[in-house]
Specification:
The protein is mainly β and 314 residues long. It is built from three helices and eleven strands.
Protein backbone atom coordinates (compact mmCIF):
# COMPACT_ATOMS: atom_id res chain seq x y z
CA UNK A 1 0.00 0.00 0.00
CA UNK A 2 1.13 3.59 -0.42
CA UNK A 3 2.05 5.66 2.58
CA UNK A 4 -0.22 8.09 4.35
CA UNK A 5 -0.80 10.91 1.87
CA UNK A 6 -3.33 12.89 3.89
CA UNK A 7 -3.28 16.49 2.63
CA UNK A 8 -4.04 18.68 5.60
CA UNK A 9 -4.07 21.77 3.39
CA UNK A 10 -7.38 20.79 1.82
CA UNK A 11 -9.93 23.42 2.84
CA UNK A 12 -13.34 22.24 4.07
CA UNK A 13 -15.26 25.29 2.89
CA UNK A 14 -18.93 24.52 2.97
CA UNK A 15 -20.95 22.06 5.03
CA UNK A 16 -23.30 19.93 2.91
CA UNK A 17 -25.75 17.23 3.96
CA UNK A 18 -25.19 13.73 2.65
CA UNK A 19 -26.53 10.23 3.29
CA UNK A 20 -25.96 6.73 1.90
CA UNK A 21 -28.29 4.61 -0.22
CA UNK A 22 -28.05 2.01 -3.00
CA UNK A 23 -25.97 1.84 -6.39
CA UNK A 24 -27.02 -0.10 -9.60
CA UNK A 25 -25.04 -1.89 -12.31
CA UNK A 26 -25.12 -4.74 -14.80
CA UNK A 27 -22.98 -7.11 -16.89
CA UNK A 28 -19.94 -6.26 -18.97
CA UNK A 29 -21.53 -7.02 -22.33
CA UNK A 30 -24.18 -4.84 -23.98
CA UNK A 31 -26.86 -7.36 -23.08
CA UNK A 32 -25.63 -7.29 -19.51
CA UNK A 33 -25.89 -3.53 -19.37
CA UNK A 34 -29.43 -3.59 -20.76
CA UNK A 35 -30.52 -6.26 -18.28
CA UNK A 36 -28.95 -4.57 -15.29
CA UNK A 37 -30.34 -1.19 -16.19
CA UNK A 38 -33.84 -2.48 -16.91
CA UNK A 39 -35.06 -0.97 -13.65
CA UNK A 40 -34.02 2.54 -14.75
CA UNK A 41 -37.00 3.16 -17.03
CA UNK A 42 -38.93 6.36 -16.54
CA UNK A 43 -41.76 4.66 -14.64
CA UNK A 44 -39.62 2.90 -12.05
CA UNK A 45 -37.23 5.84 -11.77
CA UNK A 46 -40.12 8.13 -10.88
CA UNK A 47 -41.39 5.63 -8.32
CA UNK A 48 -37.95 5.27 -6.76
CA UNK A 49 -37.47 9.04 -6.79
CA UNK A 50 -40.79 9.59 -5.00
CA UNK A 51 -39.83 7.07 -2.31
CA UNK A 52 -36.44 8.71 -1.94
CA UNK A 53 -37.91 12.19 -1.69
CA UNK A 54 -40.37 11.09 1.00
CA UNK A 55 -37.55 9.91 3.26
CA UNK A 56 -34.99 12.61 2.44
CA UNK A 57 -35.85 14.87 5.38
CA UNK A 58 -34.61 12.21 7.81
CA UNK A 59 -31.51 11.39 5.74
CA UNK A 60 -29.84 14.69 5.04
CA UNK A 61 -28.73 15.68 8.51
CA UNK A 62 -25.17 14.41 8.03
CA UNK A 63 -22.93 17.29 6.96
CA UNK A 64 -20.12 17.12 4.44
CA UNK A 65 -17.70 19.75 3.14
CA UNK A 66 -16.59 20.39 -0.41
CA UNK A 67 -13.15 19.09 -1.37
CA UNK A 68 -10.70 19.52 -4.25
CA UNK A 69 -11.91 19.01 -7.82
CA UNK A 70 -8.52 17.42 -8.52
CA UNK A 71 -6.23 17.94 -11.51
CA UNK A 72 -8.26 16.08 -14.16
CA UNK A 73 -11.29 18.32 -14.62
CA UNK A 74 -12.39 19.42 -18.10
CA UNK A 75 -15.06 21.93 -19.11
CA UNK A 76 -17.81 21.01 -21.52
CA UNK A 77 -18.81 17.50 -20.42
CA UNK A 78 -21.84 16.16 -22.28
CA UNK A 79 -25.35 15.89 -20.83
CA UNK A 80 -25.99 12.13 -20.95
CA UNK A 81 -26.89 9.20 -18.73
CA UNK A 82 -24.48 6.59 -20.11
CA UNK A 83 -20.92 7.90 -19.96
CA UNK A 84 -19.08 4.65 -20.71
CA UNK A 85 -18.52 5.07 -24.48
CA UNK A 86 -17.69 1.36 -24.59
CA UNK A 87 -15.02 1.46 -21.88
CA UNK A 88 -14.59 -2.00 -20.37
CA UNK A 89 -15.19 -2.56 -16.68
CA UNK A 90 -17.60 -3.73 -14.01
CA UNK A 91 -20.91 -1.89 -14.57
CA UNK A 92 -22.04 0.67 -12.03
CA UNK A 93 -25.28 2.63 -11.89
CA UNK A 94 -24.83 5.68 -9.72
CA UNK A 95 -27.94 7.30 -8.23
CA UNK A 96 -27.58 10.75 -6.64
CA UNK A 97 -30.31 12.87 -5.06
CA UNK A 98 -29.80 16.62 -4.69
CA UNK A 99 -31.67 18.43 -1.89
CA UNK A 100 -31.62 21.94 -0.42
CA UNK A 101 -30.13 21.56 3.07
CA UNK A 102 -31.15 25.13 3.92
CA UNK A 103 -34.84 24.57 3.17
CA UNK A 104 -35.98 21.38 4.88
CA UNK A 105 -34.03 19.17 2.46
CA UNK A 106 -36.47 19.76 -0.39
CA UNK A 107 -35.44 18.37 -3.80
CA UNK A 108 -33.45 20.72 -6.04
CA UNK A 109 -35.23 20.30 -9.36
CA UNK A 110 -33.07 21.15 -12.36
CA UNK A 111 -29.73 20.88 -10.55
CA UNK A 112 -27.01 19.70 -12.94
CA UNK A 113 -24.91 16.91 -11.46
CA UNK A 114 -21.55 16.40 -13.17
CA UNK A 115 -19.29 13.39 -12.63
CA UNK A 116 -15.95 12.26 -14.04
CA UNK A 117 -13.56 9.44 -13.19
CA UNK A 118 -10.72 7.29 -14.54
CA UNK A 119 -11.06 4.08 -16.54
CA UNK A 120 -10.18 0.56 -15.38
CA UNK A 121 -6.43 1.21 -15.81
CA UNK A 122 -6.41 4.62 -14.10
CA UNK A 123 -6.54 6.88 -17.20
CA UNK A 124 -8.77 9.96 -17.50
CA UNK A 125 -10.16 11.16 -20.81
CA UNK A 126 -8.25 14.24 -21.92
CA UNK A 127 -5.20 13.08 -19.94
CA UNK A 128 -4.48 9.69 -21.49
CA UNK A 129 -0.70 10.18 -21.39
CA UNK A 130 -0.63 10.70 -17.61
CA UNK A 131 1.06 7.69 -15.97
CA UNK A 132 -1.36 6.09 -13.47
CA UNK A 133 1.53 4.62 -11.47
CA UNK A 134 2.43 0.99 -10.92
CA UNK A 135 2.47 -1.05 -14.11
CA UNK A 136 -0.34 -0.59 -16.62
CA UNK A 137 -0.71 -0.94 -20.39
CA UNK A 138 -0.89 2.30 -22.36
CA UNK A 139 -4.44 3.62 -22.56
CA UNK A 140 -4.34 3.18 -26.33
CA UNK A 141 -3.88 -0.60 -25.89
CA UNK A 142 -7.41 -1.04 -24.57
CA UNK A 143 -8.72 -1.02 -28.14
CA UNK A 144 -12.09 0.53 -27.37
CA UNK A 145 -14.00 3.07 -29.46
CA UNK A 146 -14.16 5.71 -26.74
CA UNK A 147 -13.36 9.34 -27.54
CA UNK A 148 -10.16 10.15 -25.65
CA UNK A 149 -11.45 13.61 -24.72
CA UNK A 150 -14.90 12.68 -23.39
CA UNK A 151 -15.18 9.15 -21.99
CA UNK A 152 -16.38 8.67 -18.40
CA UNK A 153 -17.52 12.28 -18.07
CA UNK A 154 -21.05 13.66 -18.10
CA UNK A 155 -23.93 15.68 -16.67
CA UNK A 156 -27.46 14.72 -15.74
CA UNK A 157 -30.23 17.17 -14.87
CA UNK A 158 -32.16 16.42 -11.67
CA UNK A 159 -35.86 15.60 -12.03
CA UNK A 160 -38.64 17.01 -9.84
CA UNK A 161 -37.45 14.78 -6.99
CA UNK A 162 -33.83 15.93 -7.29
CA UNK A 163 -32.73 12.54 -8.66
CA UNK A 164 -30.15 11.74 -11.34
CA UNK A 165 -28.79 8.38 -12.51
CA UNK A 166 -25.60 7.59 -14.38
CA UNK A 167 -24.57 4.40 -16.14
CA UNK A 168 -20.82 3.95 -15.92
CA UNK A 169 -18.14 1.47 -14.83
CA UNK A 170 -16.40 0.91 -11.52
CA UNK A 171 -13.37 3.26 -11.60
CA UNK A 172 -9.81 2.00 -11.50
CA UNK A 173 -7.07 3.73 -9.50
CA UNK A 174 -3.94 5.80 -9.94
CA UNK A 175 -1.04 6.59 -7.62
CA UNK A 176 -1.34 7.98 -4.96
CA UNK A 177 -5.15 8.01 -4.84
CA UNK A 178 -7.75 5.50 -3.71
CA UNK A 179 -10.64 4.56 -6.02
CA UNK A 180 -13.00 7.54 -6.41
CA UNK A 181 -15.46 9.50 -8.59
CA UNK A 182 -15.48 13.29 -8.81
CA UNK A 183 -18.78 15.17 -8.56
CA UNK A 184 -20.01 18.74 -8.91
CA UNK A 185 -23.51 20.13 -8.38
CA UNK A 186 -24.40 23.14 -10.54
CA UNK A 187 -27.51 25.35 -10.38
CA UNK A 188 -28.75 28.37 -12.30
CA UNK A 189 -27.48 27.33 -15.73
CA UNK A 190 -29.10 25.53 -18.65
CA UNK A 191 -28.46 22.79 -21.18
CA UNK A 192 -26.95 24.23 -24.37
CA UNK A 193 -25.26 22.55 -27.34
CA UNK A 194 -25.22 19.20 -25.60
CA UNK A 195 -23.53 20.42 -22.43
CA UNK A 196 -24.46 22.63 -19.43
CA UNK A 197 -23.71 26.34 -19.49
CA UNK A 198 -23.87 29.16 -16.97
CA UNK A 199 -24.98 29.15 -13.36
CA UNK A 200 -22.60 28.32 -10.55
CA UNK A 201 -21.10 25.34 -8.75
CA UNK A 202 -22.70 24.81 -5.34
CA UNK A 203 -20.77 21.72 -4.35
CA UNK A 204 -17.55 19.95 -5.35
CA UNK A 205 -16.88 16.54 -3.87
CA UNK A 206 -15.62 13.01 -4.38
CA UNK A 207 -17.34 9.64 -3.99
CA UNK A 208 -15.49 6.68 -2.52
CA UNK A 209 -15.64 2.87 -2.44
CA UNK A 210 -15.08 0.40 0.41
CA UNK A 211 -11.60 -1.14 0.30
CA UNK A 212 -12.74 -4.77 0.31
CA UNK A 213 -15.05 -4.26 -2.67
CA UNK A 214 -12.52 -2.20 -4.65
CA UNK A 215 -9.73 -4.70 -4.09
CA UNK A 216 -11.96 -7.59 -5.20
CA UNK A 217 -12.92 -5.70 -8.36
CA UNK A 218 -9.28 -5.02 -9.14
CA UNK A 219 -8.56 -8.76 -9.37
CA UNK A 220 -10.91 -8.96 -12.38
CA UNK A 221 -10.20 -8.13 -16.02
CA UNK A 222 -9.47 -5.53 -17.27
CA UNK A 223 -8.51 -4.03 -13.88
CA UNK A 224 -6.00 -6.80 -13.10
CA UNK A 225 -3.71 -5.59 -15.89
CA UNK A 226 -2.89 -2.56 -13.73
CA UNK A 227 -0.63 -3.72 -10.90
CA UNK A 228 1.12 -1.88 -8.10
CA UNK A 229 0.48 -0.43 -4.65
CA UNK A 230 -3.19 0.50 -4.26
CA UNK A 231 -3.95 3.27 -1.75
CA UNK A 232 -6.57 2.24 0.80
CA UNK A 233 -9.09 4.72 2.18
CA UNK A 234 -7.16 5.28 5.42
CA UNK A 235 -4.11 6.43 3.45
CA UNK A 236 -5.88 8.59 0.87
CA UNK A 237 -5.01 12.30 0.70
CA UNK A 238 -8.65 13.40 0.30
CA UNK A 239 -10.94 10.93 2.07
CA UNK A 240 -11.14 11.93 5.74
CA UNK A 241 -12.68 8.81 7.25
CA UNK A 242 -16.17 10.19 7.73
CA UNK A 243 -18.08 7.41 5.96
CA UNK A 244 -21.15 8.53 4.02
CA UNK A 245 -20.62 12.06 5.32
CA UNK A 246 -17.32 12.05 3.42
CA UNK A 247 -18.73 10.56 0.23
CA UNK A 248 -18.41 6.82 0.96
CA UNK A 249 -20.96 4.98 -1.19
CA UNK A 250 -23.02 2.10 0.16
CA UNK A 251 -22.58 -0.63 -2.42
CA UNK A 252 -24.74 -3.65 -3.23
CA UNK A 253 -23.65 -6.34 -5.67
CA UNK A 254 -26.10 -7.24 -8.41
CA UNK A 255 -25.03 -10.87 -7.92
CA UNK A 256 -23.40 -11.70 -4.57
CA UNK A 257 -21.30 -14.55 -5.97
CA UNK A 258 -20.23 -12.74 -9.13
CA UNK A 259 -18.97 -9.16 -8.64
CA UNK A 260 -18.38 -8.83 -12.40
CA UNK A 261 -22.17 -8.45 -12.80
CA UNK A 262 -21.93 -5.00 -11.30
CA UNK A 263 -22.90 -2.89 -8.33
CA UNK A 264 -25.65 -0.60 -7.10
CA UNK A 265 -25.20 2.42 -4.83
CA UNK A 266 -26.38 5.99 -4.14
CA UNK A 267 -25.89 9.12 -2.10
CA UNK A 268 -28.02 12.12 -1.16
CA UNK A 269 -26.25 15.47 -1.55
CA UNK A 270 -27.63 18.31 0.53
CA UNK A 271 -26.52 21.62 -0.95
CA UNK A 272 -27.02 25.31 -0.36
CA UNK A 273 -28.21 26.67 -3.75
CA UNK A 274 -26.91 30.11 -2.74
CA UNK A 275 -23.40 28.85 -2.01
CA UNK A 276 -20.53 28.60 -4.47
CA UNK A 277 -17.62 26.18 -4.27
CA UNK A 278 -15.71 25.11 -7.37
CA UNK A 279 -13.10 23.07 -5.52
CA UNK A 280 -10.38 24.71 -7.59
CA UNK A 281 -7.06 25.33 -5.91
CA UNK A 282 -7.72 23.00 -3.00
CA UNK A 283 -4.78 20.76 -3.87
CA UNK A 284 -4.43 17.00 -3.83
CA UNK A 285 -5.11 14.30 -6.39
CA UNK A 286 -1.89 14.22 -8.40
CA UNK A 287 -0.57 16.28 -11.29
CA UNK A 288 -1.79 16.02 -14.91
CA UNK A 289 0.56 16.34 -17.90
CA UNK A 290 1.41 19.86 -19.04
CA UNK A 291 -0.07 19.27 -22.48
CA UNK A 292 -3.54 18.32 -21.18
CA UNK A 293 -6.43 19.72 -23.26
CA UNK A 294 -8.80 22.46 -22.15
CA UNK A 295 -12.11 23.83 -23.35
CA UNK A 296 -15.12 22.06 -24.85
CA UNK A 297 -15.32 18.55 -26.34
CA UNK A 298 -14.51 18.10 -30.05
CA UNK A 299 -17.27 18.31 -32.64
CA UNK A 300 -17.12 14.54 -33.20
CA UNK A 301 -17.68 13.73 -29.52
CA UNK A 302 -20.11 10.83 -29.03
CA UNK A 303 -23.64 11.27 -27.71
CA UNK A 304 -25.96 8.86 -25.90
CA UNK A 305 -26.89 7.29 -29.23
CA UNK A 306 -23.31 6.09 -29.60
CA UNK A 307 -23.18 4.40 -26.19
CA UNK A 308 -23.44 0.62 -25.73
CA UNK A 309 -26.64 0.92 -23.73
CA UNK A 310 -28.24 3.81 -25.54
CA UNK A 311 -31.65 2.23 -25.23
CA UNK A 312 -31.47 2.77 -21.49
CA UNK A 313 -30.17 6.33 -21.70
CA UNK A 314 -32.07 9.54 -21.31
Amino acid sequence: MTGNHKNTSITRRRALAVSGGTVAAGGLAVAGFQSAFADTTDTSADADATASASSTSSECMTLMSSVTEGPYYLDGALVRKDITEGKAGVPLTLRLTVVDATDGCTPVKGAAVEIWHCDAWGYYSGYTTANPGGSAPAESEEGDSANDNTYLRGYQIANANGVVKFETIFPGWYTPRTCHIHVKVHTGGEKEDGTYEGGKVNYTGQLFFADDIAEEIFTLDPYAKHTGSYTVLADDMVYDGGGAASGLLTLKAVHKKDPSKGYKGSLTLGVDPDAENTGAGSGGGGTPPSDAPTGTPPSDAPSDSASPSASASS
